[in-house]
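Supplementary Note 3. Input sequence used for the single-chain structure prediction.
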Amino acid sequence: MNNINLSKSRYCECVQCVNILWLNKYKPEYSQTDSNDSVLENGRKVGELAKGLFGDYEDIPYDKDIDFRIQKTEELLQDKPNIITEASFNYENNFCSVDILKNDADGVEIYEVKSSTEIKDIYLDDVAYQYFVLTNAGLNVKKAAIVYINNEYVRSKELDMEQLFNIEDVTDIAREKQNQIKNNIDRINEFMRVHDGDNEPDKHIGVDCFDPYPCPYWEYCTRDLPKPNVFDISGMWKSKKFEKYYEGKISFEDLENEKINPKYLEQIDFELNDREPKIEKEPIESLLSSLNYPLYFIDYESCQYAIPELEGTKPYQQIPFQYSLHVIQEEGAPIEHYEFLAEADDDNLIRTFAESMIKDMSEDGSVIVYNKGFEATRNREIGEMYPDLLEEMERINSNIVDLMVPFRSRDYYTKEMKGSYSIKYVLPALYPDDPDLDYSNLPLIHNGGEASEAFLSLKDKTPEHQKEIRNGLLKYCKLDTLAMVKIWEKLKEVTD
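The predicted structure, written as C-alpha cells, is reproduced below.
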C-alpha cells in the first residue's frame, strides 16, 4: 500500500499530534482556528524578501499540480550553479518545497526561512524532514540551515538584509534526526492505515495541544469534559492544569479542596456557590483618592512589522499608531474626547503620534490606563528614539495610574470575571447587557489583534475601504477609553 501524501507542514503537525492529521481528513468541520492575517502576511513578506538573500534566483511559482513543480525543479537543477526558490521534491509521497535551495556543482544547500526571532524545535523537524526527502531523492545535501529574524537589528534609512537575517547551520542536527524522521513517517502511515473514517483514534490531550502551536481541535477533543473545568482556571500554568487533569481533578467540584493558589480557589468558590460581588473598599478608595484632575483616560493601539518599515525601529517592535483619550478637566466637568489615528504612509508616525498626545495632555494630571506596562513601555521607547521628547514622555509616565490594579489584586471581584482581570471580562461583569459597551456590536474591529491587522492592511485598500476601516478603528479605540471611564465611575459608585 502506498504511503499517504505528506508535506513538511503535515509532517510537523504529526510531530505535535498525529490525531491532527486524522481530524483534518475526517472531521475538518470541527477545526477552530484563530486566523491571524497579519502573522501570515508577515511570514509571506519575510519569505519573499529572503529569496534574494544570495542574489539572483529562479522562482518556482505555486501550482496545485505538484508534478509540474517537481518537473520544473528538475530542469533548473541541471543549470547549476544557481539559486532556486520553492524547489519541489517528492520521495515515496513525502513532498516538500525548499524555501531557498543553493544549487552548487557538488551538491545543494537547504535554507528554511522563518519569520520568527528564534529557532524552535519544530523548525529543526521541518528542516530534517526536507533533508530526508532530498537525500532520498538522490541529492547530496551539503548543508541545512535556518534563516530567521535578528530582533536586535535597528533599521537605518535603507534596509540591510544581511543585518536583518540570522543564518544558523543545523546540518548536524538534521543528519542526527534522519532515523527519527523515517520512524515517524512509518508510524504516521501505519496510524492512518489503522484509523480509517469509521475508526476514530482515542482522543489525546496534553501540553502538546498548545506546543508548538495551539491545536485547532482543542474544543473537539475536550467536548466531553465537565464545564467549567480545570482548563477554565484563569492564570494557572498549563503544565499545572494538565497535572491536575492527569490526577483526575478535572471539574471545579474536584478542585475546590485542593491545595492550589487562593485566587484559583476563589474563582472556583464564586462559580460553585454563586457568591455576591467581593468589594474591598479601602484599597479602591486609596486608588481613587490618588487621582489628580484633569483625568486623562488613554489607550494605545499598536502594530508590529517583522521587516521594520520605519527608520530607527527593530523587527517586531510595537509601533503605536492610534490613541483614544477621554478627558475630565475637573470634578463634575463634562467628558471631552480626543483621538489620533496615524496615516498609513507616514514615515514618522511614531513621532506624529507622540506630538499629538503631548498636545492633548499638556497639563499635568492623572494619566489613567488599563495595564500600565504597555503604555509606559511605549512612552520610554519614544523617549529613546526622540531625545527631544524624552522629558515629556517621562512627565506622562510619572503621572500614570493603572486602573487594572483593583481587579488584578481581587479587591473587586465577581463570578462573571471568571478569574480574569482583562478589561474584556471586567467591563461586561460590571455592566452586563449594556449594548453601548458591547465590543461585539462594533463595526469591523472588535479587539486589539483585529485593530493591528486592520491598520497594517490600509496601504493596500481603496480610499473608500480605507475610510471604512479607519472609522472602525476609531470606534473601537474610543470604546476602550469609554470603558475605563465607566469602570472608574463604577469604582466611585461602590465606595460611596
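The chain has a mean pLDDT of 95. The CA atoms of residues 230 and 250 lie 5 Å apart.
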